[in-house]
Structures are given as C-alpha cells and as structure tokens.
Amino acid sequence: MHIIELNPTGTMNLLSQREVGLLRQSSSSQLYQLFRQCALAVLSSGSNTDSVEAILGQHLDFEINVLQRDRGVKLELINPPEQAFVDGELIQGIHEHLFAVLRDILFVAVKYGDALSSASPGADLTDIVFEIVRNAQAIAPSQEPGLVVCWGGHSISDNEYNYTKEVGYRLGLRGMDICTGCGPGAMKGPMKGATIGHAKQRLYPKRYIGLTEPSIIAAEPPNPIVNQLVILPDIEKRLEAFVRMAHGIVIFPGGVGTAEELLYILGVMLDRRNDGLVLPIVLTGPESAEAYFTVLDDFIGATLGPEAQACYDIVIEDPIQVAKTLRKGIAAVRDARRLSGDAYHFNWSLHIDESLQQPFVPNHENMAALKLFKGGDRGELAADLRRAFSGIVAGNIKPEGLSAVAKQGPFVLRGDAELMAYLDKLLLQFVDQGRMKLPGSAYSPCYRVER
Hints:
14 strands; seven-stranded parallel beta sheet; 18 helices; alpha/beta
C-alpha cells in the first residue's frame, strides 16, 4: 500500500469541522465519492483514455482522505496513480489541482447544498457562477481585457493539435491569456503554445485557466499547464463561466462537445437583448480541417440562418491572422465595456436565456422530447440543438449517459426531415473523422437520428 500526505497549496489551508465531516470517507457519502472521482481524474492527467469507467476500474484501491491538523488541513492519498509522480515526488501542477478540487467541491456543497438545484434562472444562477470563479481567484479585475477562450475536441489528429499550439503561440506573443476546458487535445495545445510565446516576451505570470465540471473531468483530466483550475457544478454553469469571462473565443475542430459550445454562444449572440454585443469568435483549423468547418457552417446556416453565420469568422491555415483578428476584436471589447461601464473581468450585462441556464438531464425521455424543428424561435432551436449535442456527449463519455445507453439503447432524436438530414450528416462526419472517441478507439453510436 502506497500512502502519501500532502500539505495544502494556495488558499485552501484551513477547514472547519463541518467541512471535514462532509468529506468523511463513506460509501454512502455522495460528496466523498464525487471528491474521490475528481481527485483521481486529476491524478490521471496524461492518460490515453476518455473512459470514466476505465480510469475508475484501474484504480479500485485508490482512496483520498481529508486530515484535520492543528496547523491546517492535509490530504492523504492511498494508492494514487504512479504517473502523477516524478522520482517519487508528486508533480507540482497536479498537487495544486488536487487542492483546487477540494476548494471548489467544498465551496459549492457548503454554500449552496440542496439550494443549488432550486436556484432561480437569471441573476441567481449568474451570481452563483461568479461566486465560484471568484472564490477560485480566477477573476482578475485589475487586468486589461485579454482572455481568449479556446474550444475544440479532445480527440483530434496530430496535425490539428500542432495547429492549436501554433495559434496559442501567436496569441501568447501578443500577451493574451488562455482559457480552455482544461483537458487534452485542443484544450491543451493552445496553452502549450502560449507558454512559449509568453516566455519569449518575458511575460510572467500569465493565466492558463481551465474550466471543467465533475461529470466530464474523468474523461478529460486537467492538463498540468493549467495554473487556475475551476470546477463548476454542471455543464450549463461551466458554459456561462466561459462566455462571461471571455474577451474572445477561438473554436478549433472537435466533435459534439465543440458543436455544443458553438451552439451555446450562438444562442447567446442571437438573443435580441444582446444586440450590439462585441465578442470576436473565430473558427479555425489547418487546411485538412476545411471540410469539417464547411459542413459545420452549412449546418449552422441551414438550422439557424445567415444571421448566426455572421456571428463568427472562419480562418483556415493562418494562425497569425487568427491572433490579429482576436487582438483587434479584444480592443473593440475593451472600448465597448469602457463605454457601457461593464466590468472587464466578468460580462454582467450579457443576457443568457433561461433555456441556456437550466441544467439538462441527458436521459431518453428528455432527448426524445427535444423540439428539433425549423420555423420557430431560433434561440429556442439553438438551445434544443445544444441539448441534443450535450446528450450525445453524455452518452459518449459521462457516467450517467453511458449507464442510460447501456440499459435502454441509443438516444433517439426526432425532428423535421431537412433539419435531421443536416444533423445526421454532421454527426456522421464526426464519426468518420474519429471525433467521437480518442484516435484508434472503436465508436458505438449512443444516438439514433429519425426523420
């Protein structure tokens, strides 16, 4: 048995007796099991798998305990994954991430508890998102705008990964910070590239923010470059944190998770209450990804119309142009925020509809009930398309989705023939290009499209 005790890093050094009690090891303690799962994901950073079951199954003897000491709190790791250590010493970035997990899970449990699920949409949920990222010290109120959110798949080719690094490098040379979903692939590449750009410009310290949530963290463990890890309670609050903190967004090739993110921001941009919103959005990839973006753009045009397509630029095989576009766009963001009096660090004036804030439970009943029909409100359609992709993400990698599909078969998606034809075409391309699972993994569809 391998046992190691860790001293705290950052601000998480004191806990109350109540907080320690909440995390007592117990098979019946949901909070402890959540903490264990997230901690194991952090310790598994760099593993070549996107299977929650595989990670948990390989480490059945792993446990983590919170120890209350007179001088503060410690973490006790029992049989942790060996890959988290170098010559017997835990990698410092992983050490920090473990205490970030402890901080965020406890903060949400103690402050909100059961009230989280009953919070009213709108200002109440936005306040919760703000308080979580503020508690994690991921807010930088004194800094000029310069945070670029990068979205893209964890399952991408080497060519696409190298392209994300080059874009990150060009952003780093221009002093921009990076925020991603914190995992591998297109979430790691921009951070890795930006570190070189920042180093060349002697820019220290810089921010590499990773936003994740418990149901996906095991499938997409945080990469060690992340120096500010934040765990939001669910995908909807994670997406809201992205768009309220962002000064610009870059979208790389990906799968259904990336499509979900794109549809989320388009749902926000198409809201008439956000007319005049300044937020540069660039879809980009190497030349080999041009067909991917063509199909994605066609899908957006066919479902949400030209107004949605006008919300973003597509740049192929030109990292310098991407960086220049973001730099110019962020300058416009700064000017717009200054004129409106809105905060640089958190976009309070952004309106996010209830349909994009309410957590979506990915089960067969809810997936079948989605209204995937053209002709109605585009914002509502964007929200339902976002939910459809969110459900497929769950069926691919999240424990609750995997369990539901295993018991009841694939999720069924229904809608009008034209829209479903475009949806089917897009999803088939994701499958053909290996964007549903890690390269080399066999994919069994968790969905069925009916027209």
